[in-house]
């Protein structure tokens, strides 16, 4: 299923970093691989984000594409991630991926967990 209204989005900086990591992992030229985004229990605010490269679709997966990056999430995680943007920062406050999640009501100080 490819959604068009609500989805998962990726910033230009995150796109560049994802492509770089996929190339380093040796899957950059394999169109069967995609970025899997999940929400798992844990972290100081209750829920944490998880990113993986995957090439196996699962029943109920929600599939999106933004800026040429295929992003897949399970339906349960998508309920927490509707209209979330994956971004990447190399700033002084920390280097890495972070999520601009309009559904999060609270985040922890490190930005790696959230609650709704």
From TrEMBL:
Pfam families: Fe-S_biosyn (PF01521)
GO molecular function, one term: protein-macromolecule adaptor activity
GO biological process: iron-sulfur cluster assembly
SUPFAM superfamilies recorded: HesB-like domain (SSF89360)
Boundaries of every Core domain copy: 8-112
Gene3D superfamilies associated with the record: HesB-like domain
InterPro entries for the chain: ATAP, ATAP_core_dom, FeS_cluster_insertion_CS, HesB-like_dom_sf, IscA_plant_cyanobact
Cited NCBIfam families: iron-sulfur cluster assembly accessory protein
Name listed for the protein in its UniProt record: Iron-sulfur cluster assembly protein
